[in-house]
Design a protein that fits this description.
heterodimer, A: mainly beta, B: mainly beta, about 0% helix
Chain lengths: ~110, ~110
C-alpha cells in the first residue's frame, strides 16, 4: 500500500531563508509524486510533480523538489522564502494510470517570519 | 473562467438533514473526484468517477452518494447528516493520458453540521 509521510507538521523560517519541507513515500511501483499548496481558505494548487522523467523537478513560485529513489524521498525546497509562501503544503503519491488515486500526507504548515 | 467550481462555498445545517454539494469542471476532463479534509487538514479521497462509472469507492458511509449527470459535473449528496461530517469537501478532476495523474482542485465547500 502506498503512503506518504511529511516530517514536521509546522515549519517556521525567516524571510529570505531556505525552505525545506520533507516528504518520504512508500510505493510498490514507481510512483508519481506531487506537491500541492493550500493558501488559507482556498483550494489546493499544484506546485510541481514527478512522473519518472528528470529527478529534479521545478515548479511554480520558485519551488523545486528532488526525487531520490534510494531515500524514498521527494523533499520540497525554495532558496529564499517570501512572506507570500506562508501556507499549508501537501505531498501526495499516486501509482499512476487512468485510475490514479492520490494519497496525501498530513501536510506541513509553513510560517514565514519577517 | 474557473476551471473547477463548487457550490456552495459554505454550508451550515442541522443534524439529520440531507444536503448536496455541486461540482463543475470546464476542463474537458474525464475523471472527477471528491475529497474530505478534516479538522486536522488531513485529505482523504472519497470517490472518483470516470465516464459515469464509479472507479474508486473508499470506506465511505453509504449516506454519501456521488451523482454525475454528465461528464462535467459530479455532485455529492449526503443523507442524514452527522456531526462528524463537518469538514471541507474538495472536488477535483483529471484528464486522460498522458497527464492522468495531475488533479485540479476546486476551492472547497466548508460543511458545518450543528
Amino acid at each position: 500500500a502506498q503512503s506518504v509521510t511529511q516530517l514536521g507538521s509546522h515549519v517556521s523560517v525567516s524571510e529570505g531563508a531556505l525552505v525545506l519541507l520533507r516528504c518520504n513515500y512508500s510505493s510498490s511501483v514507481p510512483p508519481y509524486l506531487f506537491w500541492y499548496v493550500q493558501y488559507p481558505n482556498q483550494g489546493l494548487q499544484l506546485l510541481l510533480k514527478y512522473t519518472s522523467a528528470a529527478t529534479l523537478v521545478k515548479g511554480i513560485n520558485g519551488f523545486e523538489a528532488e526525487f531520490k529513489k534510494s531515500e524514498t524521498s521527494f523533499h520540497l525546497t525554495k532558496p529564499s522564502a517570501h512572506m507570500s509562501d506562508a501556507a499549508e503544503y501537501f505531498c501526495a503519491v499516486s501509482e499512476g494510470g487512468s485510475q490514479g488515486n492520490l494519497i496525501f500526507g498530513k501536510g506541513t504548515k509553513l510560517s514565514v517570519k519577517p | 473562467d474557473t476551471a473547477v467550481s463548487q457550490t456552495p462555498k459554505y454550508l451550515v445545517t442541522q443534524m439529520g438533514n440531507d444536503k448536496s454539494i455541486k461540482c463543475e469542471q470546464n476542463l474537458g476532463h474525464d475523471t472527477m473526484y471528491w475529497y474530505k479534509q478534516d479538522s486536522k487538514k488531513f485529505l482523504k479521497i472519497m470517490f472518483s468517477y470516470n465516464n459515469k462509472e464509479l472507479i474508486i469507492n473508499e470506506t465511505v458511509p453509504n449516506r454519501f452518494s456521488p451523482k454525475s449527470p454528465d461528464k462535467a459535473h459530479l455532485n455529492l449528496h449526503i443523507n442524514s447528516l452527522e456531526l462528524g461530517d463537518s469538514a471541507v469537501y474538495f472536488c477535483a478532476s483529471s484528464q486522460e493520458a498522458p497527464d492522468t495523474d495531475t488533479q485540479y482542485f476546486g476551492p472547497g465547500t466548508r460543511l458545518t453540521v450543528l
